[in-house]
Design a protein that fits this description.
Elements lengths: L1 E4 L2 E4 L3 H12 L4 E4 L14 E3 L1 H5 L9 E4 L2 E5 L5 E5 H4 L4 E4 L1 H15 L2 E3 L2 E8 L5 E8 L2 E6 L2 E4 L7 H4 L11 E10 L7 E6 L7 E8 L2 E9 L9 H11 L7 E11 L8 E2 L2 E3 L15 H21 L4 H29 L4 H13 L7 H11 L12
The structure holds flavin-adenine dinucleotide.
Length: 397
């Protein structure tokens, strides 16, 4: 069996893993980034929508190679058809680019490689290795069909929603059914949607979640749905709701599918603790993803960067214990914990509202003088008329 030795092994070359690898390598750490697939960023499992504001914060320069569309704004719709239309000046924090995600992920991996990380494709982690003290000291895996070991001072689990590394390391990553959205998306062509507005439809069309239409130009769009796991029943799953929505929307009903993909997103407010001795979980593996929008690219990039910075500091003292890694916990919690919790509560409440209430909330928001639309400001407006919707987390609004 071939054995590799490094400072840090990062499992998963999604945005979280590539950012972690880049910042570890920039910090002078000998870093190996492994990815089980043969191609980074493919197959697609994403609606490809991101806001713009966080990119500078994590040092990512917008690049036309991975920007498919620069959105002018967003439309939020009720099942009754009431529309709240936001231009970019108002929708800035929630809407921005529609990506070519496969190119975006590759660009981040390239940045990691440029910083000095070694990338190994078709290399799956299959377990963790523990040292004599019982602590994790690397991973076992299969690379190009061969058994391997990668011994490291710390392991970054960036292995996404299905993360196993955290579980192997003894961290509880289980989710309640109501904290899972089951998603399906069609890349549709021959449809008639606005070319530079992202559309979100909430209510009974997508119980506990929403339908999205994210344009990709030339009559093409990602048309998808997320449905709360606890609201899926036999015969009425995400596909059932999406097909029904498409059939009833004359802009989409004559469309054709170029690509189908399914996946899951977690909609909880993050793990209780995303570190242990010699192990850090980032992005979806740490369940750090916006519970209301299901947007996780930005969270993965941020947490990957934080992990890389903290590991660089740990290396200076050669201490990768849980205590030494706790600054990572503080960093992501300081930045995101309140928002994740607030949006998780909002998601729970929204899932209980019927279409009439949703329709009147959208009408009310339309009539408000909201300056910038983000989940926080929307909840502030909702709080005035529908205090029951924000019951239990009013202090965070
Ligand atoms: C249907 C859908 C639509 C979405 N739409 C959006 C959106 O529009 N905007 C947004 O911001 N977010 C969206 N998300 C969420 C977003 O895709 C994730 O939050 C983001 O990809 C998380 O990045 P990550 O690096 O943590 O994990 P991932 O991007 O999932 O990367 C994990 C990587 O680890 C690899 N891996 C897994 N196990 C192993 C192993 N054992 N060994 C080696 N490699 C392994 C995987 O192959 C994968 O490449 C969507 C998710 C879904 C499912």
């Amino acid at each position: 069996m071939k054995t590799y030795q490094c400072d840090i092994v990062v499992v998963g070359a999604g945005p979280g893993g590539s950012m972690a690898a880049k910042f570890c390598a920039q910090g002078g750490l000998d870093t190996i980034l492994i990815e089980k697939k043969a191609e980074i960023g493919a197959p697609l499992r994403c609606a490809e929508g991101v806001s713009k504001k966080w990119l500078a914060e994590v040092g990512i320069e917008p690049d036309p190679t991975w920007i498919r569309g620069d959105m002018k704004g967003a439309i939020i719709k009720s099942p009754q058809g009431t529309e709240f239309r936001l231009d970019e000046s108002k929708a800035g924090s929630e809407v921005g680019y529609v990506l070519e995600r496969h190119l975006f992920d590759k660009a981040l991996a390239r940045d990691a490689a440029e910083a000095g990380a070694k990338i190994m494709l078709r290399t799956s982690a299959t377990g963790v290795i523990r040292g004599a003290d019982g602590n994790v000291c690397g991973i076992r895996g299969r690379s190009m069909g061969e058994e391997i070991e990668i011994r490291a001072k710390a392991v970054v689990a960036a292995d996404g929603y299905e993360s196993q590394v955290g579980r192997w390391a003894g961290i509880d990553t289980t989710l309640k059914l109501s904290d899972i959205d089951s998603c399906i998306q069609y890349r549709m062509c021959n449809i008639d949607v606005e070319p530079d507005f992202c559309e979100f439809v909430i209510g009974s069309v997508a119980p506990g979640g929403y339908v999205w239409i994210f344009p990709k130009g030339k009559g093409i769009a990602n048309v998808g749905i997320g449905v709360m796991g606890s609201k899926c029943s036999k015969g009425a799953d995400a596909k059932y709701y999406l097909d029904k929505f498409i059939a009833e929307d004359p802009r989409l009903s004559k469309g054709q599918c170029l690509e189908i993909m399914g996946g899951f997103v977690s909609t909880c407010p993050g793990l209780d603790c995303a570190v242990d001795d010699n192990v850090i979980l980032v992005g979806d593996a740490a369940r750090i993803i916006d519970p209301i929008t299901g947007g996780g690219i930005c969270h993965a990039c941020r947490t990957g960067m934080y992990a890389g910075k903290v590991l660089t500091e740990c290396a200076k003292k050669n201490d990768f214990s849980k205590d030494a890694l706790m600054p990572y916990e503080k960093m992501w919690r300081d930045k995101m914990e309140d928002k994740l919790f607030r949006n998780w509560m909002a998601k729970e409440k929204l899932a209980t509202l019927d279409d009439e209430v949703i329709d009147s909330i959208i009408k009310m928001i339309k009539g408000s003088d909201i300056k910038e639309v983000n989940v926080y400001n929307l909840l502030k407006v909702i709080k005035q008329r529908y205090p029951q919707v924000v019951e239990g987390f009013e202090d965070l609004i």
